[in-house]
Amino acid sequence: MKNLKAIGMAFVLFLITVSGIKITEKHTTPKNSVTYGTWDSASKFANTEGLKRLVNNKEAMVILGSSELRHCQKTGFHGDTVYQNTDMKPIFIGRGGYQSLNHAITLGAIADGIKNKKVVISVSPQWFKPTGVRKDAFGDSYSESHMIAFLKNKDISKETKKYVISRIKTLTADNHVMWSRIQDDVKWYMDNDGNTFDKVRKNIHSYLVNDKAETKLFMASILRGRLKDKKQGKEKQIQWDKLYKKAELKGEKMAPKNKYGMFDDVYKRKLKYKVDHNMIRKLNYTTKSIEFKDLQCFLDVCKEENIKAMIVMLPFNGRWSDYAEYPQKNRNKIYNAVRKIAKDKGAELADLSEMEYENYVFEDDSHLALKGLVNFNEQIYNFYKKN
To answer: Which of the 8 DSSP states describes residue 282?
Structure first.
């Protein structure tokens, strides 16, 4: 009898401890912090409820993209610094391998929580390879938590959902376990009806999926020291002219003679050997890429959710692209295709393509730095401030 009481007491204590941890997870994670919002974390990107807490603020600006959101952090030109102590709190979602399809699912999952009804998608020309997003990259960025919320979202049309499902089927053709799990989710959540038992079962399943995502985010936040908000100082106005001048001066030191328009040290470390030994492959991007349809799908989700979208069209590194035998006429075709989609879908467009040959715009063969990052952030801030 005593043993049973001891076991019972232990079980009760266990439940209290777990409950306490769960409450801590939800209430300790920062809700509105530039440092946290620009944190490059797969756990943050994949957590539906965590992202909803971040975007549930009129000062929050959702910015979706890929590896350009990570490059040049803590340089003074990245969003992690530029927006400190301002009236805008950037919420970065994405890293290398995240593209339009993943962002369409994410947006469909969190749209009802976005207070200011605006979103930015940073579109890299490197996305437009013949097959679009790589299968492995999609698998790495996929979030079941987001997919369930996307499927349950009644604002999103069946046509849009069917397109997303068909693309996922193609991308998981070599991953039968993943596709089987997604098929189950589609069967359960695409139509949210069913008998009482099915509803209870679905609620338990979705709770466990979200709980797992919350736990991952909480643990990652602890390990990275992201649980505490940095106190915001006195609100300031961003001095864009000063940032451009600062970027110019720094560029004169970091890329004074590089003929490919990138940082000297990056070129020497990553590309010089390949150039010297003729190992650089020709670039291969096309207007026939399926990525264009994925981008249209993303904008369809925006329309169905009544969210105003802005595309930031990133530039090719013109000098490097010329060397890699991808001429300007081909690059212009990519730009024009993005412009047409933006116009047809009613999205705003921040066109950075004119920066292709400017000095002090790129860190490497593709990623923005210095003046490129200042322009990138200025365009986003102007969109945020626009009524």
So the answer is: P
